[in-house]
Amino acid sequence: MTAHYEVRGSVAVITLDNPPVNGLGFATRAACAAGVERAEADPAVTAVVITGAGKAFSGGADIKEFGSPKALAEPNLLSLIGVVENCSKPVVAAIHSVCMGGGLELSLGCHYRVAQTGTKVALPEVKLGLLPGAGGTQRLPRALGVEPALNMIVSGEPVEAQMLAMVPGQKLFDKIVDADVVAAAVAFAADVADKRPLPKVRDLKARHPNAEAYFQFARNMVGGMSKNFPAPLRCLEAVAGAVKLKFDDGMRAEREGFAALMLTPESKALRHLFFAERVASKIADVPEDTPLRTVAKVGVIGAGTMGGGISMNFLNAGLPVTILETKQEALDRGVATIKKNYEAQVKKGKLKEDKYAARMALLSTTLSYDDLKDCDLIIEAVFEEIGVKEAVFKQLDAVAKPGAILASNTSTLDVDKIASFTKRSQDVVGMHFFSPANVMKLLEVVRGKETAKDVLGTVMAIGKKIKKTAVVSGVCDGFIGNRMIEQYSRQAGFLLDEGCSPQQVDKAVEKFGFAMGPFRMGDLAGNDIGWAIRKRRAVERATMKYSASADRLCELGRFGQKTGAGWYDYLPGKRDAIPSAVVDEMLAKHREAIGAKKRDISDEEIVHRLVFSLVNEAAHLLEEGIAQRASDVDMVYLTGYGFPIFRGGPMCYADTLGLFNVVQAMNRFAKNPMDDGEFWKPAPLLARLVAEGKSFT
């Protein structure tokens, strides 16, 4: 976690060494600055090269120090860049592999830059709701040009070094090499050792032939694409400052913008997401060095919508898949759907023909369980009924090889009960994919009471391989996501009882930032699915109260888009949700039947009742150990349920509002005569956190 110093001939080489990406933590910054000062003081040294050990030049700030005093301790990044820039001997950055964020800003403080082909270069701070805070918005436009620099800063996306070197007039890179960038940089440093004055990026001019018109055009474009995120427009204004302000004034404006963005809820949410995504893969009692099982071949049972989508994930990752069905027609339909999905990607230019052919070559089909005997991982995606699951897992138990992982794609059923259908419960795990499975990022990994640690570790690693956000859940009805959404849906129904229309609720929630409101979501998923759950609840938990409005809807045969009518009307072949006079009439009769008085309900109340119902149920899940951590709950809702990213998930949002305020609102909602007195009772964990003045995250 430091930097190493050596001398090659007359050139000092300082190597940043803070794995995995040479984050610029305090110890690394201090050692790098000390190395420059040492070279400065040594008369035998004529030039300096700064590079990075391992697989990166530098990925920027050290995330382990985020929010700690060390992040700002001197020398901070600005101070280090000042030491480098003001060195009296030429400093050359030897850039390779990854050069991002503060790493790129450090290289821009060097006098020269030699880069290796394929190096990924980026200023990704906008993805954390921030702007580059160590001169990136001031130096990159000077070195690369205003337009390409603005594109990089506003998007945060990486660009390969050789592509940037092709920008006309660029002074970002002095040389591009294919291999051994350090040797090339040392040779380059020796060649320029006597050249004076030393070139500084800060002395270059950031020019644009029609700056005012260009930035106004860019404001319109960026503003339209980032309405819920303040950082992109702040980035744009900082770059505009590079054109119209002196360098030091531009730097002050950049720091002011950075400090202002750090305080925004949007940046807090994005930084929370950044850490939550990384910590989700860590399981308290499963060490990171746990030996994993080999997964070289995958079996999928069921060629329907879910089975086909699941299969595509593994084909995309280069793993052979065998799909099993009971009838050839079902197999043919499933394979045809997979082909159709891939062909659509080819048509849009998102997939090359040869890759499409390679993926299809990995796919095989069968009607016999015997053909799954050499699979390392077998996932069932059959009808959501315990008797069907039992038949499948008894068959798998008979044919699967020892050590094969047997996974269920169940969304609500008891994984422990499913495991009991086998003599190898330690090999059974839940892998709950979300529809469409080849698109949705979330994978709920359901840990049974006997699931082996190496099985859990292997499935989490597989999740990463197939580019999913894998979150561990314990066993309960609905796991994390669906157990919470049931409370959300219940509250949405109560809002209808009290006078809201489906479109009023949906509009309020979508204005808040959800991808889709609860009633449009119900129509898309199929209202008959919720109906079946409520019928099951009537037997299992007869005291649980629901609005009867959804049952009345289903009794009319209005199951949603698939029937052309649900909470909304739909025209043939279209998905536009049209407010329905039939539903309005049904709701009016329903309210009359239950004696409910219609009242005016604000958008804020709608949103808070729905979101706080999620928060309270999540607090129960945390208390019960079903979810490991509050940030895991947020990852489930951000990647699987359309919760607005700029709000950071339900738990982050509750923390931002203040848990005291959340509970106060819940207490007000509990006074509603339509409430049964139990719904808004704070979960013990939530009540305890409020009493202790703490937060979830």
Automatic annotation (TrEMBL):
Pathway of action:
Lipid metabolism; fatty acid beta-oxidation
Instruction: Provide the 3-hydroxyacyl-CoA dehydrogenase C-terminal domain boundaries.
Output: 478-570, 606-694
Residue ranges of the 3-hydroxyacyl-CoA dehydrogenase NAD binding domain?
A: 297-473
| Catalyzed reactions per annotation | a (3S)-3-hydroxyacyl-CoA + NAD(+) = a 3-oxoacyl-CoA + NADH + H(+)
Q: What InterPro entries does this protein's entry cite? A: 3-OHacyl-CoA_DH_NAD-bd, 3HC_DH_C, 6-PGluconate_DH-like_C_sf, ClpP/crotonase-like_dom_sf, Enoyl-CoA_hydra/iso, NAD(P)-bd_dom_sf
Name of protein: 3-hydroxyacyl-CoA dehydrogenase NAD-binding domain-containing protein
Q: Name one Pfam family in it.
A: 3HCDH
Entry's localization field: Peroxisome
Q: What is its main location?
A: other
